[in-house]
Amino acid sequence: MKLTVSLLGESYRFHDLKELFAKANEEKSGDQLAGIAAADDRERMAAKLVLADLTLADIRSNPLLPPETDEVSRVIEEGVDEAVYETIRSWTVGELREQLLAASETEVRRIGRGLNSEMAAAAAKLMSNLDLIQAAAKCEVITRCNTTLGERGRLGSRAQPNHPTDDPLGMKASIYEALSYGIGDAVIGINPVIDTTDNIIRLLHETKEVIHRWGIPTQNSVLAHVTTQMRAISKGAPADLIFQSLAGTESGNQSFGIDLRLLQEADQLIRESGTASGENRWYFETGQGSELSAGSHHGVDQLTLESRCYGLAKAFKPFLVNTVVGFIGPEYLYDSKQVIRAGLEDHFMGKIQGLPMGVDVCYTNHMKADQNDMDNLAVLLAAAGVNFFIGVPMADDCMLNYQSTSFHDIATVRELLRLQPGAEFSAWAEKMGILKNGRLTALAGDPTRFI
């Protein structure tokens, strides 16, 4: 591989792919914190020029984390469609970018099957924000749990009815408000405060009771640690989806208390004992920077590690994958510009690898960002064909203490871009009088109809 370039009279040499990948990134505070970022814009541009001329075979032949030492790398390698890869292995990364922007939707999906996660990350590093939107918009990813997610013209939503004490009445009030805005078609998913088996059993029953009582075409999930969910499901708790956060390295996943074998056991359990009718029964969450937080990044940049999360997730055919893009804080994404960039990168990298990507358009209060910035990102992602957003009351999660998108934010984006909830949920909302001809009625926003 040629890892040198002369730019504006100055020579640049990169020692290996780890250094090259990191320095080709757009500016990220997490890469700076790790000490692997480009020193300035000139070095960043030099790295992009070198990266653009590498072939896909170069990247695959020189893995950033060898499969012999990292099980995530092994899963990613096993997920590559070898027949497709053989037709594109000689492309440079620059040519890959051009093909993804110029090719048809069918061809883009075919190309994606032949990529590993590092190749997807490399393409993202060469793309503008508009490129990321254009390429991702070509990737329709449809999944099926109890309902169908990801069809053209649809924008899904998770109702996130969190409560500081897991109080069932408070959670139900939030669920009913979400439903009144047409939110909750992707999942009714609770982040529990108390991660005990008995509490998770209770919350799964509470959500199922609401779903059954009102005949809501959706699915439930309680986002406890996967082992707690497994104990609850083994005791008969009604779970449509099983959840877990993922990292892009084996050691990063160990810091979450998981490994590949445990995920495989959970996969078998949810397929044998889960309550969903469809084949896609996983809900994964990710986010740039988690590996560095755990000291398990191995010198790899946060964008590439995020892409590796998607290579791992793909092996389990999930119903939902969600990057919680601005949740960790300014140590990893310093301001709104970096959050917006990361959200578009994550969505593209997940979609090109065949995943049903959602984005938690969010930020923390110590970050240089505000709700207007999140409005901008939400519209950009909806134009890019994002599968779902997160909905919380007034955009303020009172348990996790961060800012996301509100129920009415998602409803507004749908109306602006002429999008609707999932087909089954839309039919239910029309029957309930919440929607009429795909638009919210005067009953929207009134949760008392469910009380």
| CA-based gyration radius | 21 Å
Beta-strand content bin: 5-15%
Mean pLDDT rating: 97
Helical residue percent band: 40-55%
- The counted number of beta strands is 17
Can you describe this structure?
With 451 residues, the protein is an alpha/beta fold. 47% of the residues lie in helices and 12% in strands. Strands 5, 6, 7, 8, 9, 10, 11, 12 and 15 form a 9-stranded parallel β-sheet that branches. Helix 18 links the parallel strand 10 and strand 11 (357-360). The longest helix has 18 residues, at 197-214. The chain is globular. The protein starts with a strand and ends in an 11-residue tail after the last strand. The mean pLDDT is 97.
Summed up, what is this model?
This protein is of the alpha/beta class and 451 residues long. The protein has helices at residues 17-23, 29-34, 41-53, 56-61, 71-78, 82-88, 93-102, 105-113, 117-125, 129-137, 168-180, 197-214, 226-234, 250-255, 260-273, 290-293, 302-314, 336-352, 371-383, 407-416, 423-432; strands spanning 4-7, 10-13, 143-144, 148-149, 156-159, 187-190, 220-222, 242-245, 282-286, 320-324, 357-360, 388-392, 396-397, 402-403, 405-406, 435-436, 439-440.
Please specify the SSE layout and strand pairing:
Layout: E1 4-7, E2 10-13, H1 17-23, H2 29-34, H3 41-53, H4 56-61, H5 71-78, H6 82-88, H7 93-102, H8 105-113, H9 117-125, H10 129-137, E3 143-144, E4 148-149, E5 156-159, H11 168-180, E6 187-190, H12 197-214, E7 220-222, H13 226-234, E8 242-245, H14 250-255, H15 260-273, E9 282-286, H16 290-293, H17 302-314, E10 320-324, H18 336-352, E11 357-360, H19 371-383, E12 388-392, E13 396-397, E14 402-403, E15 405-406, H20 407-416, H21 423-432, E16 435-436, E17 439-440
Parallel strand pairs: 5-6, 5-12, 6-7, 8-9, 9-10, 10-11, 11-12, 12-15
Antiparallel strand pairs: 1-2, 3-4, 13-14, 16-17
